[in-house]
């Protein structure tokens, strides 16, 4: 089992790796908007990537989309059955 200082060091490394993946792999390579909110016992405030303003904007867009989706009651398109010939 790790002691507390080793856990903290491990957390910092993993946090850095996670934000790098969100930035370089999801955002850049996939061309999508991405954000991360990381809570930790080692910090008073959560780490918000890329920034609190951008993250709030993304979450608001997501919530608005969910409301719109429910209002529209999107029909689920079923695949047509394959006919046996």
Task: Please describe what this structure looks like.
GO terms for molecular function: DNA binding. This protein has 85 residues and is mainly α. The protein has a domain at 4-60: SRF-like. Helix content is 56%, strand content 7%. It has a two-stranded antiparallel sheet. A hairpin with an 8-residue loop joins strand 1 and strand 2. The radius of gyration is 20 Å and the shape is elongated. The mean pLDDT is 84.
Structural topology:
Elements (H helix, E strand, L loop, with lengths): L3 H27 L5 E3 L8 E3 L2 H21 L13
Antiparallel strand pairs: 1-2
Topology, number of strands = 2
Largest beta-sheet characterization: 2 strands, antiparallel
Radius of gyration: 20 Å
What CATH first level of the domain at 4-60 would be assigned? Alpha Beta
Percentage of residues in DSSP E strands = 5-15%
Overall pLDDT: 84
**Looking across the biggest beta sheet, what order are the strands in?**
1-2
List the uncertain runs: none
Structural class: mainly alpha
Overall morphology: elongated
Helix/strand order: HEEH
Oligomeric assembly: single chain
């Amino acid at each position: 089992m790790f002691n507390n200082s080793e856990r903290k060091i491990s957390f910092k490394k993993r946090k850095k790796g996670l934000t790098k993946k969100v930035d370089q792999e999801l955002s850049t390579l996939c061309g999508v908007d991405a954000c991360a909110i990381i809570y930790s016992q080692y910090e008073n405030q959560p780490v918000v990537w890329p920034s609190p303003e951008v993250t709030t904007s993304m979450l608001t867009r997501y919530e608005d989309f969910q409301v719109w989706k429910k209002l529209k009651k999107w029909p689920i398109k079923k695949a047509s059955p394959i006919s046996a010939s």
